[in-house]
Amino acid sequence: MKKKFLLCILFTLLVSCSNSTKTTSEMISLEQSSEQETTSLIVSTETITSEESSLKEDTSNESLVTSGEEQITSENFSSSSIEETSSVFSTEESLSSFISSEIVTSEQDSTNNTSSGKSSSNDSTSESNENAVTIKKIKEQAQSFLGKENSVGVYESNIIVEIELKLISCLDAITTKQGYGDRYKILMSDGEDYIYVKTTDKNYEYLKQYVNDQGVYLVKGNISLYNKEVEITTKEKPTYLSSKNIEINYEKIAKLKTLEETYDLMESLKLNCKGIAFSQIVKVEVKCLAKDINNTNVYFGNGNKIVNVHGNDKVTNKFVVGNSYLLYGALNVHNFRPGLEYVYSSSLDKDIEFFIDNLEVKKASEFYNYTYETDKYDSYPNYSRLFETPYVIEGYVNSYIKDGKEYIVLEDKYNENYYSTYQNARSAKSVFFVNENYIKLTASNSKYCPIYEHLEKGTKLKVVVFPYLWNSQKYPQVYCYYFEEL
Fold first, then answer.
1. Beta carbons of 122 and 179 less than 8 angstroms apart
2. Backbone angles phi and psi of 24, in degrees to 5
């Protein structure tokens, strides 16, 4: 009996020990599992922190973000990274939004891929393209600034962008009035769109030297508005990228317009106090009519409309008088005179017609009614519309003397005496020619002036003219396109 009892006790003890061991094992297993999860969480957190720290170190090395400013480069531009005010993200969004707002240059991205031994995939390339800074995205962001402009229509945000751009043209907005900022504008492109870069006189003079080369530059500056035109404002010298080239998609940048539509667009532009504005690029089909004015101006026409195109000192070499062209130009109003700033051109196989029949006839003296003043009114519609078409002047040839050279003018009445000064010719309300072979004449070169013989004859002429401008010396200048005796 005792033996049976002892065996029962022993059996009970064994079962109890077995259950205790099992419970202890399960607890240990649970504790180990918990420790693994905790370790995994810590590692994950440390990884994220490390990535953030690395990104921040890269950012600090750029030394481009001033206090209160955010820099956006061509590798991380996204809508979430260019908000002027702080945004609240959900838990899922916060990390990706943080990373996208950091500075990651294309060189860094390439280095990271190489060091890890990975080639970039189509997905990463697509993501990089989506985050790249483009002029289109800059313009979209700038729409949120409308209504924030100062009294002269200028606003400069605290958002800094970094973008590679191709140089097209260097321009001068003239005004130094307080509130406008620097007066110089650089027309540039990323290949898909255009933008103006407002900059200092030193940067303007530097870039102007190389405008014919149309090189690529790295530009860093603030997204801005200037009379509703989106700009980048910078005082930093653009960095020339000798190994880079940007092919401009002119078909995408510019829409085909008639000259009449082009003038309608220019009439809608908001001008600064000097009567100046630069805006979008258009393309027009035109015939080259004249280029013997100076090295920077060419006249084109279509139908009974004309347009003056301004460019660099080589622009006249691009055209042949009488040939037709597809011309790309930026809308340009200068001292209230509308025109185009040359961007690009290609020859057209078809012949564009230009008519000088049934033109409006004006007296020379009437052109003194078309004037403007800077810093007074914001527009002079009567003056600006004068430049859209040719006119006929019926009058007589005369001349004035300056520095021993002769300059041809046209006036309403015949005068057998020449004028000793331009002031005398102005008092007689003469119009002044700008043709190169009508000015600075001497005994040796006057024979090349086709109208010169009518000085002595006193012949009344019918002259087709293109309005050129109201000179700062207070007289009208015109280009002589054609003349015949009456």
1. no
2. -65, -40
Q: Are 334 and 286 in contact (CB under 8 A)?
A: no
- Distance of alpha carbon 298 from alpha carbon 340, whole angstroms: 10
Closest among 355, 337, 354, 362 to 463, alpha carbons compared: 362
Nearest by Cα to 452 from 486, 419, 483, 477: 483
CB distance 235 to 245 below 8 Å: no
In DSSP notation, 407-468 reads EEEEESS--SS-BSSHHHHHHTT-EEE--GGGSSB-TTTGGG-TTTTHHHHT--EEEEEEEE
- 372: number of Cβ within 10 Å: 18
Tens of pLDDT along 308-354? 999 988 899 999 999 999 999 999 999 999 999 999 999 999 999 99
For residue 51, CA distances in Å to 43, 54, 95, 149, 445 come to 12, 5, 11, 39, 76
The token pair that represents 173 in the structure block: 């907005």
- % of the chain at pLDDT higher than 70: 73
Residues whose CB is less than 8 angstroms from the CB of residue 329 and which lie 6 or more positions away in sequence, other chains included? 281, 282, 283, 284, 307, 309, 340, 341, 342, 343
Specify whether the CB–CB gap between 186 and 196 falls below 8 A. yes
The pair phi, psi for residue 341, each rounded to 5°, is -95, 125
pTM equals 0.75
Residue 47 to residue 320: CA distance in whole angstroms: 66
Contact (CB, 8 A) for 196 and 281: no
pLDDT digits (tens, 9 = 90+) for 27-41: 334 344 444 433 343
Q: Give 157's contacts (C-beta < 8 A, 6+ positions apart).
A: 84, 142, 145, 222, 223, 224
